[in-house]
Amino acid sequence: MNPLYPVVAERAVYRCEYCHAPEIVFNFPFEVEHIIPQSRGGTNDLGNLALACHACNLFKSDFETGRDEESHTEAALFHPRIDTWEQHFRVDIERAEILGITSAGRATVARLQMNRPRQLTARQRWIQLGVFP
């Protein structure tokens, strides 16, 4: 486990900083993710680290941009240390979907595949349990 996990997890209130999945319903800790990938010059500085669920970390990989299908442009992904989640995303409780409301939000939802069927099913359960959003 990353030695900075306790600090990063507490700062994130034990939620994935991308999809807001609650770590408490998983049987393993979330991952400390490099916002700017180390392969692209990112550091281990706390300002470059985010808490990410396995799925978001896997799909983000070493990408820093994604496709915004509304504007048909490549856009920077949501940056948890700079951006505010609520300014870029909203949750459709009825459909359990995360909706991007900015170019960065839409690009992040698409790149991280936040609304895959399994994610929607899990989110519906989390909503029922009162742990999401």
Automatic annotation (TrEMBL):
SMART domains: HNHc (SM00507). One of its GO terms (molecular function) is zinc ion binding. It comes from the Bacteria. Residues 3-58 form the HNH nuclease domain. Pfam families: HNH. InterPro entries: HNH, HNH_nuc, NA-targeting_endonuclease. This is HNH nuclease domain-containing protein.
